[in-house]
Amino acid sequence: MDTKQTRREWTVTGMDCAACTLKVTRAVEKMPGVSDVKVALMTERLSLELEPGTTESGTIEDVVRKLGYGIAPRGQEAPRKRGFVLPDDMPVKPALSADGEQLGRDKAVGARDDHGHHHDHGHDDAEDRGRRWYETDKGRLVIVTGALLAFAWIAELLSPAGAGKWAFVLACLIGIAPVARRAFGALRLGQPFTIESLMTIAALGALVIGAQEEAALVVFLFAVGEVLEGVAANRARDGIRALATLVPKTALVEIAGQIQEVPAASLVIGQTVMIRPGDRVPADGEVLEGVSGIDESPVTGESVPVAKGPGDAVFAGSINTEAVLKVKVTKTAADNTIARIIRLVEEAEEARAPTERFIDRFSRWYMPAIVALAALVIVVPPLAIGQPWDIWIYRGLALLLIGCPCALVISVPASIASALSTGARRGLLMKGGAVIEAAATVSRVAFDKTGTLTLGRPVVTDLVPAQGVTESELLAVAGGVESGSSHPLARAILDRLTEAGLSVLPSREAKALPGKGVEAIVGESRAWVSAPRHAAEDGAIDDRTLDQAARLEEEGKTVVAVYRELAPLGLIAMRDEARSDGAEAIRQLKALGVEGVMLTGDNARPAAAIAANLGLTFRAGMMPEDKLDAIRDLRSGGGVMMIGDGINDAPALKQATVGVAMGSGTDVALETADAAILRDRVTDVPALIRLARAAMANIRQNVALALGLKAVFLVTSILGITGLWMAIMADTGATVLVTLNALRLLRYDPSKT
Asked: What is the set of domains in the chain, with CATH numbers?
């Protein structure tokens, strides 16, 4: 029997606060064969490992529905549009059915079960799609309970004595009914300590002791609070949801010389698309024809259009501003920049910060402890010192309402989600709360040189052929070795080869020599392109040639030696200019109290020239393992952020406290890194740290606000200063205030110093 676990994903709608995610998590994780359950509030995502032959996917969906939420397999139409839902033409990783088959988007799911029956969840579901708050189930409950409360007050004033009392009782019972149904559903799944159950006990208890007017008011305020929580949660999702709408639904494709309009999701690698002025780019690609300004602000936050011409890369979702372009598709719709950002943001919410994990553990015993305290408050004073039962029952019920940890539990994920959304809009991507928390504490930043502190577009400046070798032969062999490489130095050599009108010699068995260079069989014999000192170690160049390389390096140039077995072919010198914002980025880092250092595999002389211009210390001539050792050394003095863009940087990125890949970097670097900078701007490094620090400050404010309000009303409720309605105001108010405070991060601009 195959016991291999399979990852399954669903969209769960109707979750408005962190307590909702806890209910879903605790209900699902108890099921046979289920493990590693992760529920993300802001992206409305449930994912888990499911062992085949144990629990059916449909059973999991039924349990979630019983809790009062809408659910659909990821990739199918979600129960409503209020949450984070990919548009119909946005590809996602396929969801799997219980038997492992891929599910399509066309199966209608959500509010109906497999037999076509509707479920009354008590949460907004498919019937609430696209409606305003007052058209939703929760909104209608607010209106009904408010109207009943107003009617009861009028009856109290105008009707005979006692009539108003029964009007308040009726208002309370009608308002509490859907809440009690959800509480009962959670209780059946082994979750007695939910806000719905506490609310139900408090409201019914208030009726028993004759506080019917306050019971009705509490029910109304609870309904208002739920609506406000839903509105606030959806505001937090708006920034993430907006990413999914950036890619156009259709594209103009050149097929057999004719331009045809096709769905953007159907584009395949190698197709040519035409992009008119004002159109959005439908796929990641490379410009074939035309020169135009590209507005990348929707993707990277870069406000100034960037000139793009043949050979330049363009992002899906960016806007063509000037002239017609023909672009070759280089990535499928499922792997384009926008899709990758969306996946990263979705997965980021699962990488929870240590603070968030601690608060989750704290909340697991906090609510039962409050319930126990409320029970003691109810029974001890009457039994021990003969106090009136009704007074202490009332105070105990108020304590129950204080017991919900919603505000505390949501204090971290709401801030993290807002920070992730803000960063994504500005081309600053972080893979979760743990990365944000770590980035906020870094004291050192280590930079790779080529492609990170420099433009990564070196140009050949000098050709120094060996005796008896022509420049053409030198270039042709070097081009053959580098023909399969994407390294900036390789591109510089190939570009010079093209300018000279020369053809690349055929090669095979090419492989990178980390920290040294590249080798391949060119023609009939092996050839190398490597750093001069490694060529000297191999005996391929003499001292005179090594001195020539040193003189070129003193001019700030990078030099490579080209040779065959024991046959030197010559030297090629290249220069890569430092990024214009590099010095400003280092200044900003110093202002933040962060020290910068450059780690490079290049020789000391060109490294010194770059470092001097930027005001950095540096370590040169480093192999990948040397960078690893350097990062370990730096980490001994505190948190270290490593910035790189190449394959050679991947181990160091992984070793650092926070690894950050530049947007132009290789896929290996992007996958290995904890964060990414899409705009290739060095000043985005201090911006990333500022955003992380702002998020952590926001989290501290939220935790203080949540715990402070709880502590104050805990004491005032026991002393009888505040009652039931103030207790529910404190609970709901704290949740809304914490969420609104987190939403302030959506307007935060980390680029401002």
From this structure: 6-131 (3.30.70.100), 137-240+348-417+694-747 (no CATH), 250-332 (2.70.150.10), 428-454+579-678 (3.40.50.1000), 459-575 (3.40.1110.10)
